[in-house]
## 1
Amino acid sequence: MKDSCEVAIVGSGFAGSLLARILAVLGYDVVLLERGTHPRFAIGESSTPLANLSLERIGIRYGLADCYQLATHGRWLENFPHIRRGLKRGFTFYRHHPREPFADRGLDSERLLVAASPDDSLSDTHWLRADVDHHFARGAAAAGVDYRDRTELTKAELTTETVLLEGSRAGKAFELRANFVVDASGPGGFLGQQLSIPSGFDRTHTRSALVFSHFDSVRPMADLFPEMAVGPYPDDWAAVHHIIDEGWMYSLRFDHGTTSAGFLLTPRGLNALPAGDAAPTTLWNALLQLYPTIAAAFSEATPLMPISFRPLIQHRLARAGGRRWALMPHAFAFVDPLFSTGIAWSLRAVERLALAFEDAAHHGRVPDPAVVRRYETALVTEADQIDLVVAGAYEAMAHFDLFAAQAMLYFATVAFAEASQRLTPTESVAWNGFLGVGDQVLEPLPGESLRRLRQITSSRGEAGSNAERKEFSDWVSHAISPRNIAGLADRGRRNLYPVDFDALVAQHQLLGLSRDQILEAIPRLRGGSTLLADAGNRHSLPARDASGTRVEANQGP
Ligand SMILES: Cc1cc2nc3c(=O)[nH]c(=O)nc-3n(C[C@H](O)[C@H](O)[C@H](O)COP(=O)(O)OP(=O)(O)OC[C@H]3O[C@@H](n4cnc5c(N)ncnc54)[C@H](O)[C@@H]3O)c2cc1C
């Protein structure tokens, strides 16, 4: 084992592995240190358009064909059918009430569907992380990264000159010197402990517990409600959210028949459950008993691994980077699976650090401290923003109308970001703020929304009056209007939102484009082919597939 390298990366989830591989492509000498082995179970599975846009950009910029191919369900199936995934056409929400079956009242149902893609081939995916992370770890090794699994790190010492890591592998102690260390080791991460980074938890609002597993034979809602009003996509091929009094449940269907499902329970919700402190399986069954439609969906399901419980899934540190170190988002902070922000945020961070190392490649070979400070500031502000959006959504769960309105804040923000990133891309697009950060219209909204919601609910889950709920929905609709390019918050839609290119064309001025410009650019939203053609000339790096083999230009990405 060599005892020095330029960059050490701790943790080989997709974020650590992908960054390691990009840095190797850029010519850095990288060691990737992993405590466990692949394949291994990991949670955090549902991707989004912004995540896939990052993957496409990474694929194009660094010549990593597989990243581009994994960015839509159609290309994924065509190129990597053995890597398991699920079709995710959008975000589906149902409101359930204790001891009552879900009420299918046609277009008046407590049901919200927001499409994220116009068809199956361009769709997002749920990632079976065991397969996906394994793929990315292999890709890193094939690109020349020194990948060391089953590594137990015991110490990190940082000076102004160097980083010293100590640990052992297969019973053999080692020391590794690096110029820079990136911590991609997730919650309770390595550097957080080694550098005694103070907690930043106090500044956050969201709190939830999780009971979860993977299951087979979960029945689709479409089977239970065959007469359900037709939505913009099949309800179940999505990130399905069941909102309940105690919190909410995610249900993510993979193409091979497995479903990842978990209940997120608020402290108040958990305390109110008689089985709140029982064994995970007892708690799971108690929740199913309370909600008959969810119970029906899981009536024939069997867990594929033991049902597990985590009493608190949030974490947050006070720092995200320094002179010779940086944390990936999941090592720095996590809020909640609601709205699936984790993968997109992590990939954005991969892009940013990759750009920082690109800049450093010709002078110093260590990211400029000013760039690391910029990275840290971005992560701190963005973690706050994600927390406000999600905390507001938990508050809004008191009534479905409030929730549907709050969800519009999130969807308007990401739809605007996706359209502007695709239609008016810039070299520094990865530095654009996540979830509206840096946008003078969008950035203040989550904080203001949380304040308004707490007034309505008295922070005790009260549903408020009809007038209060209507006022809140009207406020959201008005507040997002300068960025609402997707026809959202439209009562006429009855909570069923397809991808609406007509709305986009009608709102062309919000993106600073003429009607003709937007009509011409629409193919970019339909699959990125124009983006690719543009990129072909811009970047001269050779394309490589996951095994590191060079791909000829006409093969992709
Ligand atoms: C309940 C839950 C649900 C989620 N759902 C979603 C979702 O639907 N969509 C979404 O976008 N995001 C979701 N997320 C967030 C998502 O899980 C993260 O964004 C993602 O896992 C980050 O990937 P990563 O590669 O940075 O880290 P991780 O996936 O956490 O990987 C960390 C790696 O580091 C290794 N490691 C840990 N400690 C050490 C050490 N000391 N030394 C060496 N190696 C170490 C681990 O073995 C692991 O391989 C969810 C998170 C949770 C908790």
## 2
Amino acid sequence: MLIAAARLFDGDGNSIVDHPLIHVEDGRIVSVTSRPASSIDSPNLLDLGDVTVLPGLIDIHQHLAFDASDDPVTHLADVDDATLLLRMRAAALRALAGGVTTIRDLGDRNYVSLTLRDWFRSRAEVGPTILTAGPPLTTTGGHCWFLGGEADGEDGIREAVRQHAARGVDQIKIMATGGNMTPSLGPHESQYTAAELGAAVQTAHAMGLPIAAHAHGGQGIADAMTAGVDSIEHCTFFTADGVAADPAVIAELGRRRAVVSVTAGSIPGTGPTIPAIAKRMAAIGANHAALFRAGARIVCGTDAGVGPNKPHDVLRYAVSGFLPAIGMSNAQALRANTSVAAVVCGLGDRKGTIAAGKDADIIAVPGNPLDDITCLQQVLAVFVAGNRIGESRLVNDESALSFESA
Ligand SMILES: [Zn+2]
């Protein structure tokens, strides 16, 4: 297949290429050249016309198991794993239709996301690439304990990481602090000691797995950084009643080029629905701007699924809204959730740019996103491994998708 368009942003550079011609075979990009579609006479030509093509977006923090309603925790508790799996499939396909071709799922229940990951990976159905963490590690009764990942003490944490690895997860997720969905302790409070986080990092890395730490409070952020986690999720510097970031921690996160997964994105016309976040959002944004200036690697994770303003296709609003607002150029914002996110996910050799050898995960948007990044909000076409979404999406019989508990 030959895909032609008016413009291309390759996910890595600073500029637009005119008249790109992308040669795709067996789901991979064979070559990218520049040639007007009008000069090509081939039955395999697909001319997308006056659009900009760019790499599929990568959301580094989603929860496919949460249904983006006003009470995702209760709704999750109400369904069995077989029903949950079908609900997660629908969420993943919604993300894909909105241009999200790779999803890092940072917390499911009972490893259901592994079944969904493998379903799409087997090409039984065309879907996004999913990287899964399984149930996040948390203290007994701690943040999101109901997902089933309770682990206490250094030995308990090591054992839990080994169990996750044995199940075949792609990364470990650990709740360094409390959070906003579980009232047991405040987001600003640490759940684990620095030594416990160190044990988690050491064991995960020994098993060949990256580890992401959910951290709101300043102490939890500092401990997660010192422990050497591969990404800090949220990084909001919550205190009991506001936000306060230690400038030394911001400077050190920058010096380390730490990956900071900033939580952003809501459907237009809405803001954060959790009051504790809404009242802190301006201060959180200011600290994320400071982290970006200091040199931290900023990537958006939407936390899609946790509320009604965060459906699973919401990433495009975060990339086009929040990232420019903290000081990124349009090219930097587009690179964040394409080429930078691919490296963060360990998929830099397959995803994140439109280049020879990469998976043909491609989206098309109107206009020129370097001039006006809001055109990203209108995704006109999505290809995943060379398959155009909306056309022959279902390759096989979906009744073959079922959850088998291990
Ligand atoms: Zn989350």
